[in-house]
Amino acid sequence: VIRVQAGQYAENVVIDGKARKGTKDAPITLLGEGKPKIVPGKASGALLQVRRPYWIVEGLEIDVRGQARFAAIFQGNTQGAVLRRSHLHGGTLGGGVTTHGHARGVLIERNHIHDFHKPNNDDSHGVVIQATSRGIVIRDNDIHDTSGDAVQCLNPDSGAQKPAEDILIEKNKLYSTGENAVDIKTCHDVVVRRNRMSGFRKSPTSSGEAVVV
Fold it and tell me: Which stretches in the chain have pLDDT values below 50?
């Protein structure tokens, strides 16, 4: 366990090839105590970047402060990676949390994700599951006030990419977004269950549905 004390940290948290891999029996936990706040530093890219397996990130506040960045990104060999009990808000790129680049086995649970808005009401989603992702679980999160969907599973960018598959979206509170609670595009083996969805209205980019498949 790596314990991060309360305070404000202007930096990116990057867990990549230089970091040790966790294992199923011995995951590595980055644990915020007293909700330390991560804010943008001089580096570019998402404020939290996870590219190693069996890393658990828990108890952080990630404040993107209106910059065109994701709060968190999971990419590559992320089997057993977890984002839990964290507060993510304030970005102006395509969403708050995203999985892409063959991300697999990621659990996103018990987070508060809100206020992701692209300029001119373009799409900025709470959680974006991109093509080539596998085994993604989005559970027991509070996601609201985004200019796009609370959760979107994207189309592949090209015919060479395989769609995302094995997706579970359950027990979330999804409400008051600019588009839908859940928008499933070209994705395989998706389960959506036991969610509470509310506050959807017709807009220039949505007919006001809670769920679109």
Answer: none
